[in-house]
Model the fold of this input.
Amino acid sequence: MAVYTEVSDDALVTFLADYDIGDLVAFRGIAEGVENSNFSLKTTRGDFILTLYEKRVDPADLPWFLGLMEHLASHGITCPRPVAGRDGKALRRISGRHAAITTFLPGVWPRRVRPEHCGPVGAALASFHLAGAGYAPRRRNALGPEGWAPLLERSLPGAEGVHPGLGADLQAALDRILAAWPHGLPVGHIHADLFPDNVFFLDRKLSGLIDFYFAATDILAYDLAICLNAWCFEPDLSLNVTRARAMCRAYAAIRPLSAAERAALPVLCQGAAIRFALTRLYDWINTPAGALVTRKDPMEYVRRLRFHLAARNEHAYGL
Amino acid sequence: MAVYTEVSDDALVTFLADYDIGDLVAFRGIAEGVENSNFSLKTTRGDFILTLYEKRVDPADLPWFLGLMEHLASHGITCPRPVAGRDGKALRRISGRHAAITTFLPGVWPRRVRPEHCGPVGAALASFHLAGAGYAPRRRNALGPEGWAPLLERSLPGAEGVHPGLGADLQAALDRILAAWPHGLPVGHIHADLFPDNVFFLDRKLSGLIDFYFAATDILAYDLAICLNAWCFEPDLSLNVTRARAMCRAYAAIRPLSAAERAALPVLCQGAAIRFALTRLYDWINTPAGALVTRKDPMEYVRRLRFHLAARNEHAYGL
Done:
């Protein structure tokens, strides 16, 4: 579900009067995305997306996100481009929320990941990392390593109820990961949430990337580790090495991975797995009954974490 | 939320190969509608809606619904038109569900009802009733008067927990309504669910009607009574007589109301109010915690019911 805030027809007409994007033709809520309210907006000039930023997004970050999208779109990355109002501003307000219109991206996200998706995702991620280099402002990754211990602490009281021994397991894994966390690896802007529902394909080609609202400045290879977690596991939660190899090779063909980055891959993958295990665990414990959001099972990432903890080196990922 | 069944990209491509509607451009779940899964589908030929019929819809009724939409669209009613596959059939299967593609309707449903919406809704409803006359097959209204007593019976055990005395109040009201239910009024095909989210407006004109999956053959003026309930009450649940008068007059200008229909308006409105009170009460009691559907408060219709029970005659509605 992704409509938390309704937009009245009056408010919409008033809002659109501040843009030069044609007249309203249609407006429908989109049942995708979990953080913000998204609407498909059709005007006499074409298709757009209206996003209302909900409470999980810090308004202070919005100019950074929109600036990044604009920068990436201007540098060869197919992603939604913020559409400015007549006053030149893309970030506006409607129905008590910060909001922005972006361009519409053709494509369909893959409900079932196939090996042939993984190379294009690796290549797109590397292109994103290179294109992002020219965007000067930085954003701290609140869900990076510094954020994991506080997240775990807040979830520990409920962890035992999710799975016996889960809290102790996560605490031990986190201690190990933080002790081994690499320093000095190349840093840049990362997407940090490039899951299948954020990547569109059309005619078997990658047609665009969406949803930059977790993007931040962090270790570039950590973004690859997030994608390995998100795209390369089988439904039984074993790693598909063919997918992982395709993703890493396609990435490295565009942005070569240093020996240090390759060697760090197991711990980066451990970090990525624990990051999603921890946020899912927190949401699992704290989502009220009857909420509109489907809770995602944290154990799916705990199992990935176990795989990564057992990986001896980058060869486990086909490198 | 209105995506209960996911459609894999493979299944979608295979499904679309059976149509002559161009190539896939985009596919997004729509966060509207509560009974079925709806997707906005864009191809190189234009925009369409893909509906997957979920468990509340009886598959045996689907040909009737699609036939009605086709008939109405051919007779001047702006509504989604079923799109046939290459074999001439509109009703097909995808992802384990019966499914149909329909044409896309421009417009926006009014999130906030204004008096000027109500006349056009009355006129569109009357046009629908006239246009439906040439569609021969009939469909029994499972949520008509015969369905109310069984619905109440199944909700009685939980009614007291919703509001003290609610079960006894509804039982008394239902007895009174069924005893007074009119016979011999004109019958035809009714929409039976013409709420604001099923009516699109564009440039302040009504641009179309959607969601015919409660349509049935029943008393025509009962459909007007449903619309009076759905469109003409203030947020404080008092009737707005200006809206009701505008709706009834616009209706009668296209399909004149007989003296018997006018006289029956209070009991028809009571019936419409108890119908929605009962289905909402049933869902309220039986919706599991954590379900994706927002439960709607049955008391909103109990309060409307009280208004209608106190209405002495059709003058209460501005007639």
Q: What stands out?
A: The first strand of chain A starts at residue 24 and ends at 29. The radius of gyration of chain A is 20 Å.
